Automatic annotation (TrEMBL):
<feature type="transmembrane region" description="Helical">
    <location>
        <begin position="183"/>
        <end position="200"/>
    </location>
</feature>
<keyword id="KW-1003">Cell membrane</keyword>
<feature type="transmembrane region" description="Helical">
    <location>
        <begin position="212"/>
        <end position="229"/>
    </location>
</feature>
<dbReference type="GO" id="GO:0008961">
    <property type="term" value="F:phosphatidylglycerol-prolipoprotein diacylglyceryl transferase activity"/>
</dbReference>
<keyword id="KW-0808">Transferase</keyword>
<comment type="similarity">
    <text>Belongs to the Lgt family.</text>
</comment>
<dbReference type="GO" id="GO:0005886">
    <property type="term" value="C:plasma membrane"/>
</dbReference>
<feature type="transmembrane region" description="Helical">
    <location>
        <begin position="25"/>
        <end position="45"/>
    </location>
</feature>
<comment type="pathway">
    <text>Protein modification; lipoprotein biosynthesis (diacylglyceryl transfer).</text>
</comment>
<feature type="transmembrane region" description="Helical">
    <location>
        <begin position="57"/>
        <end position="79"/>
    </location>
</feature>
<keyword id="KW-0812">Transmembrane</keyword>
<dbReference type="GO" id="GO:0042158">
    <property type="term" value="P:lipoprotein biosynthetic process"/>
</dbReference>
<feature type="transmembrane region" description="Helical">
    <location>
        <begin position="249"/>
        <end position="266"/>
    </location>
</feature>
<keyword id="KW-0472">Membrane</keyword>
<comment type="function">
    <text>Catalyzes the transfer of the diacylglyceryl group from phosphatidylglycerol to the sulfhydryl group of the N-terminal cysteine of a prolipoprotein, the first step in the formation of mature lipoproteins.</text>
</comment>
<feature type="binding site">
    <location>
        <position position="152"/>
    </location>
    <ligand>
        <name>a 1,2-diacyl-sn-glycero-3-phospho-(1'-sn-glycerol)</name>
    </ligand>
</feature>
<dbReference type="InterPro" id="IPR001640">
    <property type="entry name" value="Lgt"/>
</dbReference>
Amino acid sequence: MPFWNTIYSQFDPIAFKLGPIAVHWYGLMYILALLGALYVAKWFVKKDNLGFSNQILESYFIWIEIGIILGARIGYILFYDPHVDYYLSNPWQMFNPFLDGTFVGIRGMSYHGAIVGFFLGTWLFNLKYKINVWRLLDVVAISVPVGYVFGRIGNFLNQELFGRPTEVTWGIYVDGVLRHPSQLYEAFLEGIMVFVILYMYRKFKKHDGELIALYGFFYSLGRFIAEFWREPDFQIGFVYGEWMSKGQALSVLMILASLLLYGFLIKRGKRG
């Protein structure tokens, strides 16, 4: 049997241990995602002469990272966790990394919740620094997909967010069931594809903010497509008929919001 099909039985998701703390490959990939996105942001600001200093970019990334972590975790609790009532009654438990005295890290993050936290962090940052926020969001739009590739590879290495059962030759065995490596599909559709499209489009944009609106649209489109190969969250299943997952439903809403934002920016730009 090819090594690829059984890679999970031969690969440890823990990269190394620091005493009682296990450092997972996912955590390392998350760090690479942040550093990769920040590096690409700095590179594009310099390449396209966008007028933001490295200090502003680094400060901004700290602000939005706090917003993303809070939004992702709270969003997961509200959107996906079946014990939402418990967490609302004991909100400090949302960020408790210990389970029965054992360090397990913080598990369960929602991308769509992270989006809410991201925009909240951006709004607060803009209140403090008074910048061209739409131009800055365009920098984010073209840099985040690079980081997202690392994030989805991290999901794959952490053996989570499995794909649906399949018979394709490149499937991965999970508990004896051959499944799509949907995390890698998402790395391509939501990361590489979105980056290439925005990279090519950026020279044609006429108004600041267009890239972030297009990012929302193309990311959500890629997520909607990839979810056809991804196993729905076990505690939720399908939310519409026997085919639409919660992730797809939220992606549809994000597509509509992105189109409305794009239309608003174009209309505002014509008036200006």
